[in-house]
Write a structure and sequence with these properties.
The complex is a heterodimer of chains A (378) and B (393). With 378 residues, chain A is an alpha+beta fold. Chain A has eleven helices and ten strands. The chains are: A alpha+beta (378), B alpha+beta (393).
Chain lengths: 378, 393
């Protein structure tokens, strides 16, 4: 498959970019942040995501969705990275939608997927438990209780957890087995604490104290959620990598313009070779990330025809590379802008903060480099 | 069955029938490449036969027109040939600067007579070419070259010196940049072709830090060259030189990607050892290798994406500078990690155990990747100027 967007994908890229820069430019994030908005995103805007089809992108057509793939989800995420728009897109339209579409029962799919497509619900996937992403170490525990389950444990960095209508919780149900449970936030024993984060990211810490859920809460098969979870996380990682690419791109665009316009010593600072070479290296890094992320998104979409290990490998490579590139972009962006880059009024700081959060989200460069080494047999 | 499918079948059958078994083994070292030319010492009859059979078919240069000794294949057919050769493990029948560099330049800028004279001999591996570009005082600033050609009615007389001329001592002909006017820097340069056996040409190999001598100093003392051997107009050679440099950049940039050795991580784990859980025993080296492999994967994807964009008529020609820069730096990193993983064993310089210091010598040779064909710094200048539109010198 050619490593370029097809015509429809190119049109989607242009339209989502235009939509977000008109409806939700950076000022939108600032307003929500500065007013300490209780939800953290704009609900009417989320409804408009349904009108545009963005919330429906990964929902199968049978459930009112568009039945598109990771490439399209990545295009939307990249645009969200450029405008830093707060939105439940990743939690609900990507992670939850894919988990439900892959593993949900007919009843679960019928109840939730059309609502995701219509942007009428927010669903949060709860995986992380410690400060670093380590899904292999999940300790939240669900034990059988009559026909249902009893869930205990704590989760952190749960995207949109403070306003979710449902949680999908990854819990250990045996030494090696994981189970995904759909949990009602209002159930007895559920504690939700919104976390106010450096980039105004919408997330929460959750605690489950012997929370009782029915047999119908299980998503997929009990004790066998490992493969589904891996697949959902890898999709999420690739989409986050695309978002990091959007961040890097937006920062680079601004920085390049500044190099051409800012004058010192009677010339544009972009004439200085010290800055030219750093800008050129950063440009190349961004192009490398762009190619690798598109390759990973395409690989995720061709999952069924490919060796799953190959898909996991390129996903890990893409997330690691995107983390490193976006990190470099925001550091260089602030440094090349000088003092103005350090002010809250200027936008670069917002990108730096978001880049940091997206790096941690679903595994940082070190986590994924370790996966690459393990998959390479060394 | 589509035409392309029947082409695939015929190609596979032909390769199976004609590619000798010895030519289906992976290339083990640089010595296994076939460069062709008047004086080439073939490793084996199989190597000679394989070059000749492929040359007769024009498949040493599959996409060149048949009239010039090429295969006349479409890009799609050439891709099929490539896939089928890989499937059988066939070695490249011939590698040469004629194929990579001069050929494309002649196809674009040569006269009909020049094409008919030189291209078929490149395709058949009869003439081996070298490139006369750099001079002792014209490296990164190549256009300041001073090798002088006096222009007469029907010939030129060339005096001067070139340096870093790859394999000049083994080459039959040279494509060479000479100064035919001192009035202007860039528009006083001509692109000429001549036989290295011409009276007045001498070469002297330069011993490199690797202990090998792939490069020479080349001296011209009143070398007489017919006027018809000038490619393009007189004083307009710089355009051709630049065209050819982009081909050279793509070739060197591709080094990071082209490799038959076992994966770096596996090589290092075998050399250094593993811990109880099977990981490479040195955590820091393991992390560096993983980061390298990630960057290498990204480079492969970018090479593909750049090709795909070019096929759509998108993309910037200066991207070849970005790829040359990154491929060269990547290859240097690879050999730093290799020599680090190999430890003291990798430092042996002679003897059978180290295959006469192959690893150490290759590590040292790789340092030239970011110097030859335009330094890394020059490539970054090109990216800054031509792609990013930054102002400056």
């Amino acid at each position: 498959m050619a490593l370029v967007l097809n015509e429809e994908q190119g049109m989607l890229r242009d339209s989502v970019k235009a939509f977000l820069s008109e409806r939700a430019p950076l000022a939108h994030l600032r307003k929500l942040r500065d007013s300490r908005d209780a939800v953290g995103f704009d609900r009417p805007l989320w409804r408009q995501f349904a009108d545009q089809g963005y919330s429906a992108v990964l929902v199968p057509e049978a459930h009112g969705g568009l039945g598109l793939g990771a490439v399209e989800a990545g295009i939307i995420a990249e645009a969200l990275g450029r405008t830093l728009t707060p939105s439940p897109f990743l939690s609900t339209a990507v992670l939850a939608a894919r988990a439900l579409a892959r593993a949900g029962s007919q009843a679960q799919q019928a109840a939730l997927l059309p609502k995701i497509a219509a942007a009428e619900t927010v669903i949060a996937l709860a995986v992380d438990e410690a400060s670093k992403h380590r899904p292999a170490a999940i300790a939240a525990k669900a034990t059988r209780d009559g026909s249902g389950w009893r869930l205990s444990g704590a989760k952190t960095f749960v995207l949109d957890g403070h306003v979710a209508d449902h949680f999908i919780v990854a819990a250990r149900t045996s030494e090696r087995g994981l189970t995904l449970l759909v949990v009602d936030p209002r159930a007895a024993g559920v504690h939700v604490e919104r976390t106010l984060m450096v980039d105004a990211h919408n997330a929460a810490r959750l605690r489950f104290d012997a929370v009782r859920v029915g047999a119908d809460a299980v998503l997929g098969e009990a004790d066998a959620a490992g493969a589904v979870l891996d697949e959902v996380l890898d999709l999420g990682r690739t989409v986050v990598a695309a978002q990091l690419l959007g961040v890097a791109d937006a920062v680079f665009e601004r920085t390049l313009a500044y190099l051409k316009e800012r004058r010192q010593f009677d010339r544009a600072i972009g004439e200085f070779q010290a800055l030219q070479h750093r800008a050129a290296e950063l440009y190349i890094d961004i192009e490398l990330t762009r190619a690798l992320v598109l390759g990973a998104l395409q690989a995720v979409d061709q999952n069924s025809d490919q060796d799953p290990a190959q898909v996991a490998l390129i996903v890990a490579q893409a997330k690691a590379h995107a983390c490193t590139t976006a990190n470099r972009a925001v550091q260089e962006g602030v440094q090349m802008h000088g003092g103005v880059g350090m002010t809250d009024e200027f936008d670069l700081g917002l990108y730096m903060k978001r880049a940091r959060t997206l790096q941690e989200l679903l595994g940082d460069a070190g986590f994924h480099a370790d996966r690459v080494a393990a998959m390479g047999g060394y | 069955m589509t035409e392309l499918e029947s082409f695939r079948r015929e190609t596979r059958a032909w390769l199976e029938a004609h590619c000798p078994a010895e030519m289906r083994r992976p290339v083990a070292s640089d010595n296994d490449y076939c460069w062709g030319g008047r004086h080439f010492k073939f490793q084996s009859d199989a190597q000679r036969t394989w070059m000749q059979k492929m040359g007769e078919r024009g498949w040493t240069v599959p996409t060149w027109p048949k009239a010039y000794g090429g295969g006349g294949l479409s890009k799609e057919e050439a891709a099929v040939l490539n896939v089928e050769m890989r499937a059988l493990g066939c070695r490249a029948p011939l590698v040469s600067f004629g194929i990579w560099m001069l050929g494309p330049a002649l196809l674009a800028h040569g006269t009909e007579e020049q094409k008919l004279e030189h291209l078929p001999k490149i395709a058949r591996g009869e003439i081996r070419w070298c490139q006369g570009y750099s001079e002792p005082n014209a490296g990164s600033d190549l256009a300041s070259l001073a090798t002088k050609a006096e222009v007469h009615d029907d010939h030129l007389v060339i005096n001067g010196q070139k340096i870093w001329t790859s394999y000049a001592d083994e080459a039959d002909w040279i494509f060479c940049l000479v100064r035919t006017s001192t009035a202007k820097k860039h528009t006083g340069i001509s692109f000429v072709l001549f036989d290295m056996e011409s009276p007045g040409v001498t070469t002297r190999p330069i011993v490199l830090i690797s202990g090998k001598s792939p490069f020479c100093e080349t001296f011209f003392d009143n070398v007489r060259v017919p006027r018809r051997n000038v490619v393009g107009e007189l004083n307009a050679g710089w355009t051709i030189a630049k065209y050819l440099l982009t081909h050279e950049r793509e070739m060197i940039g591709g080094i990071g990607e082209r490799s038959n050795v076992k994966p770096l991580g596996e090589f290092a784990a075998d050399a250094v050892g593993r811990d109880a859980s099977g990981r490479l025993a040195e955590a820091s080296l393991r992390a560096q290798i993983a980061r390298f492999e990630i960057d290498e994967a990204a480079f492969r994807q970018l090479m593909q994406a750049t090709g795909d964009r070019a096929r759509r008529g998108e993309g910037n020609p200066a991207m070849s500078s970005a790829l040359k820069y990154y491929g060269a730096e990547l290859n240097k990193r690879r050999w730093e990690l290799m020599i680090s993983a190999a430890g003291a064993d990798g430092l042996e310089w002679e003897g059978e155990r180290s295959n006469d210091g192959t690893l150490a010598r290759t590590w040292l040779r790789s340092k030239g990747n970011s110097i030859e064909g335009g330094t890394s710094e020059i490539q970054l200048n090109v990216v800054a100027k031509r792609i990013l539109g930054l102002p400056g010198v």
